[in-house]
Write a structure and sequence with these properties.
Blueprint: E1 5-6, H1 16-24, H2 44-61, E2 67-72, H3 75-87, E3 93-98, H4 101-110, E4 115-121, E5 145-147, E6 150-151, E7 156-157, E8 169-172, E9 189-193, E10 204-209, H5 210-213, H6 226-231, H7 241-257, H8 259-280, E11 297-300, H9 307-317, E12 320-321, E13 332-335, H10 342-359
Parallel strand pairs: 1-12, 3-4, 3-5, 5-8, 8-9
Antiparallel strand pairs: 2-10, 6-7, 9-10, 11-13
Helix pairs in contact: 1-7, 2-7, 3-4, 7-8, 8-10
The structure holds 4'-deoxy-4'-aminopyridoxal-5'-phosphate.
Amino acid sequence: MSRGYNFSAGPAALPEEVLRRAQSELLEWNGARASVMEISHRGKDFMALAAESERDLRELLSIPSNYKVLFLQGGATQHFAQIPMNIASRTQSADYVVNGDWGEKAAKEAKPAVGVRIAATSQATNYDRIPPRESWDLDPNAAYFHYTPNETIRGVEFMDIPEVGNVPIVADMSSTILSRPIDVSRFGIIYAGAQKNIGAAGLVVLIIRDDLLARSPKDLPKIFSYAEQAAQDSMLNTPNTLGWYLASVVFKWLKEQGGVEAMAKRNRAKAELLYSYIDGSEFYTNPVDKSARSWMNVPFTLPREELDAVFLKESEAAGLLYLKGHRAVGGMRASIYNAIPIEGVQALVDFMKDFAKRNA
Ligand code: PMP
């Protein structure tokens, strides 16, 4: 077998133990005498899985009882649009703080459904930081406040939850959920595509406070309504059963690892290892303001662009995979989500040292 360390930004690495368990259960799952993909989502076996996965996620993130947990589809992108359809109207406005490409996309997709106000943006500095708090122009009457706690492309992460008064906070946590503990009670909605820290692409986890469910317009087509999805336990139609199953296996794995507190320790150590090497080297550069450097996505550039192709070829041969940076930034990007062990980051740093020595 030649599995390498996979630094893809998403779909991203899954824990090997999770893949092995899925492999061992593929033909026959849980005594169902069929695979989890081949049985009814309304049967007792799958319903039990759905309930248990929700319990596990609630436990992992200490989700308060006045929040519903939905297992949906459409990617985070669909929810860029679906969130304003549910909790706002065209006559209202919503505040967006934009610190990267995903926040920019979220604001654009929301426009047909709500008046979008860009309360602050760091576009002028190429999204290398969080817009300074004193520049935020917040509307106390906004229907909601939206931000992206971790910007996957630029590697810019909030280290705290913004204070925005009584306006409900909506957070796209696609690339940071479950990487550390969070205070869910500070949020109105948390949503995340699954393909980084939750499992496989095609599933979206959305955590929503009960009072916001009451905002879903009655004339919204049911399939778009969070209130309807909540009333039907995310089974308004056939859910992504395989994706849901994989998420359930990841949640069990996280619990075995010591939960999100343990992941936070591990993730902080991984990020510190990589950033401290980059900062100490004269060869590699990370462009992000030190106060906002992501624990999950670490972009870095080499001193000469023509070295990029050589770096990629040699790192791949060394089993360090998918390090090519996003075209918006260039260079490399190492995504070091929960499934990447510290040994993987150490192997990357060792390779980077050797490469720098040979190409300085
Ligand atoms: N938000 C963030 C922060 C992301 O990283 C991504 C995907 N990389 C998306 C949204 C879009 O997710 P999807 O492709 O699931 O719609």
